[in-house]
């Protein structure tokens, strides 16, 4: 018995340190980190958990599929994807987030829940349950050989894109006055307003940046999973939300780290665990979420005592 | 009981009775919608017992519905039918078969005990953390019920559960849940919990334990949700996806649209949304309204319901009823001007 476990463990460890698995896991972690930034940024400024974030990505995926089915060039498809996702983000901000800004976080969470179902059911009505295929970027899924390991191009693209996006975001947040306003609003919205930060501007900016990230994620996810269904990115969003909470919602850095960690962990576990054992993976992940909420409500990667009634 | 309290119980109970009577006059195929609405009332009122009185959001109540449905379903399928779709059951589950009422009770107890166990650690949380944690409970429950075939059918559908939830049983179930919710909210425990909702600091200052009151309400609410799950599985052959995200969403929508903080709101919301939903379901197949044929594409229902929910949240965040119990005081005042 113990010999079986031991050999299983060696297999598992062998798979887990496999460079290919590592790079794929880091690639997945990078995508999840971008989603975590998108969710964390809006949460920081608006104190709003955007449950509908996955549906934004889904809409972007359908835009790409729409373009690819008509044989449009890749660049046009990506432009359409950005256009659709940003348009939806702005509409969402104007129609739902802004009027509800003064409500409690719980009410806003339910509202984004409603928006998520709205978008998903519209997609279901429009495209059907089987969805569409976005194939124009499929060649990125092919491996390149570096030394004696094969690495899928998309993993490299994802890592580089995520790094560039995060660097740009850091520049915006730390070097521009808009970024300063957003950080001020994230610290204390009321006081920031009193000091002349324009509430609508920072809220729109946060939602827009988060929309840009959603579009980027949509492009990269459709490469990995070319079939876009109405439930596209829903699982990923739920997992990222868990990661953001585990990392710590109140700081963008810890939220991002949480998103990356959960993406990386599920990449490694999904690549190395046999199916029979990975079917309870969600239970394990959400068990960890509950544990973290109980033991460190502020998140794993935050320092100091968390503010009790922050949320 | 004061007349005012009597109205607060009679109004929701009367609405349920009216829906039942209306359901008894229509054809069998339409009756299904009324039974469905009554089961929805049970679930939403169970949800209200915790969410409404405590002001803490729960995305996890459908897991209690699911556990109740599993308990009632597994226990009431005839023994010879069990191996067909539940071949891996534990021996005692395989060899035990109970009747309608015991299986409903078992559903309630299963939901209540599960909620108590989950609540022991979770009731320390509030606000967003509570929302996320209860959502995690839903994910875990759904994941386990989906793959753990020793306690149920796994991915299979609950076929051959005796369909004992007819109009009468659904109505009795809904009334039982309403009376329990009413009795609870008038008890000292219910009042203490409502006090913690309005002002946690003040409630603490007068010696109310927020944790204990929330835990009690959570367990009671889990019991009622389990019971509702029992009613549900005796009504339709459900599977694990029927008691997951969609049901979570639609029941929360009903509660929010009706008005989260009152029993009256919970019942009004459940019946109004169910009514609209059934109407649209009919319209998806073509519906005759006064000579006009109303026809909408399939899938419109959930769009309308979610848009309605977002609209209510934006325009009237306290719901259709304003989150108040029905009161005849304004009517009295008009009748007897003083």
Could you please describe the fold and organization of this structure?
The complex is a heterodimer of chains A (311) and B (338). With 311 residues, chain A is mainly alpha-helical. Chain A has a domain at 21-233. Chain A has helices spanning 2-17, 19-46, 53-69, 74-97, 105-127, 153-175, 177-187, 189-194, 199-224, 234-247, 252-272, 275-278, 281-295; strands at residues 132-133, 143-146, 149-152, 227-228. Chain A has a two-stranded antiparallel sheet with strand order 1-4. In chain A, α2 (19-46) runs parallel beside α6 (153-175), α3 (53-69) packs antiparallel against α10 (234-247) and α4 (74-97) crosses α9 (199-224). Chain A is globular and about 60 Å long. The model of chain A is unreliable at 306-311 (pLDDT under 50). Chain B has helices at residues 3-25, 28-54, 61-76, 82-85, 91-95, 100-122, 127-147, 167-186, 188-198, 200-205, 210-233, 245-258, 263-284, 300-315, 329-335, and strands at 287-289, 292-294. In chain B, strands 1-2 form a two-stranded antiparallel sheet. In chain B, a hairpin with a 2-residue loop joins β1 (287-289) and β2 (292-294). Chain B is globular. The mean pLDDT of chain B is 90. The A-B interface holds A 49, 95-96, 99-100, 103-107, 109-111, 113-115, 117-118, 121-122, 124-125, 238, 241-242, 245, 249, 279-280, 282-283, 286-287, 289-290, 293-294, 297, 309, 311 and B 56-57, 121-122, 124-125, 127-129, 131-133, 136-137, 139-140, 143-144, 147, 249, 252-253, 256, 297-300, 302-303, 305-307, 309-310, 313-314, 317.
């Amino acid at each position: 018995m113990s010999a079986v476990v031991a050999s299983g463990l060696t297999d598992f460890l062998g798979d887990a340190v496999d460079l290919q698995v590592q790079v794929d896991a880091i690639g997945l972690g990078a995508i999840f980190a971008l989603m975590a930034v998108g969710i964390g940024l809006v949460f920081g400024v608006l104190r709003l958990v955007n449950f509908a974030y996955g549906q934004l990505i889904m809409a972007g995926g359908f835009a790409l599929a729409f373009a690819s089915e008509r044989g449009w060039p890749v660049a046009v498809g990506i432009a359409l994807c950005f256009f659709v996702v940003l348009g939806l983000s702005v509409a969402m901000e104007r129609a739902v987030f802004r009027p509800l800004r003064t409500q409690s976080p719980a009410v806003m969470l339910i509202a984004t829940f409603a928006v998520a179902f709205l978008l998903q059911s519209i997609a279901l009505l429009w495209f059907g349950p089987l969805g569409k295929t976005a194939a124009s970027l499929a060649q990125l899924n092919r491996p390149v050989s570096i030394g004696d390991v094969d690495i899928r191009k998309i993993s490299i693209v994802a890592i580089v894109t995520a790094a560039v996006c995060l660097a740009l975001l850091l520049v915006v947040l730390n070097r521009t006055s808009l970024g300063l306003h957003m950080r001020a609003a994230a610290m204390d919205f009321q006081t920031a307003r009193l000091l002349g930060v324009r509430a609508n501007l920072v809220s729109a900016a946060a939602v827009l940046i988060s929309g840009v990230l959603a579009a980027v994620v949509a492009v990269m996810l459709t490469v990995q999973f070319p079939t876009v269904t109405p439930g596209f990115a829903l699982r990923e969003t739920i997992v990222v939300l868990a990661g953001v909470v585990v990392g710590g919602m109140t700081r963008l850095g810890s939220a991002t780290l949480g998103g990356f960690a959960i993406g990386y962990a599920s990449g490694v576990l999904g690549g190395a665990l046999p199916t029979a054992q990975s079917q309870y993976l969600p239970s394990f992940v959400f068990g960890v979420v509950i544990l973290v909420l109980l033991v460190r409500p502020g998140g794993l990667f935050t320092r100091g005592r968390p503010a009790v009634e922050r949320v | 009981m004061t007349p005012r309290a009597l109205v607060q119980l009679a109004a929701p109970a009367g609405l349920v009775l009216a829906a039942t009577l209306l359901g008894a006059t229509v054809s069998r195929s339409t009756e299904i919608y009324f039974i469905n609405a009554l089961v929805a009332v049970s679930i939403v009122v169970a949800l209200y017992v915790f969410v409404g009185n405590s002001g803490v959001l729960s995305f996890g109540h459908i897991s209690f519905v699911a556990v109740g449905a599993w308990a009632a379903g597994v226990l009431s399928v005839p023994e010879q039918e069990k191996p067909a779709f539940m071949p891996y059951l534990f021996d005692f589950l395989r060899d035990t078969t109970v009747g309608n009422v015991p299986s409903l009770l078992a559903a309630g107890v299963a939901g209540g005990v599960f909620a108590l166990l989950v609540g022991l650690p979770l009731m320390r949380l509030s606000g967003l953390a509570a929302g996320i944690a209860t959502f995690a409970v839903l994910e875990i429950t759904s994941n386990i019920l989906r793959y753990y075939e020793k306690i149920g059918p796994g991915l299979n559908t609950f076929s051959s559960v005796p369909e004992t939830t007819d109009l009468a049983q659904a109505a009795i179930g809904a009334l039982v849940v309403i009376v329990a919710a009413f009795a609870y909210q008038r008890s000292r425990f219910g009042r203490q919990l409502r006090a913690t909702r309005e002002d946690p600091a003040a409630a603490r200052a007068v010696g109310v334990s927020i944790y204990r009151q929330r835990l009690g309400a959570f367990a009671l609410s889990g019991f009622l949700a389990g019971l509702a799950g029992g009613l549900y599985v005796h009504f339709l052959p459900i599977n694990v996806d029927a008691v997951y995200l969609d049901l979570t969403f639609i029941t929360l929508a009903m509660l929010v649209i009706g008005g989260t903080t009152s029993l009256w709101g919970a019942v009004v919301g459940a019946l109004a949304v169910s009514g609209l939903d059934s109407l649209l379901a009919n319209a998806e197949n073509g519906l005759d309204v006064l000579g006009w044929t109303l026809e909408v594409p399939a899938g419109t229902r959930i769009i309308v319901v979610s848009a309605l929910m977002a609209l209510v949240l934006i325009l009237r965040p306290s719901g259709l009823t304003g989150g108040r119990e029905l009161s005849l005081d304004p009517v009295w005042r008009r009748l007897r001007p003083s």
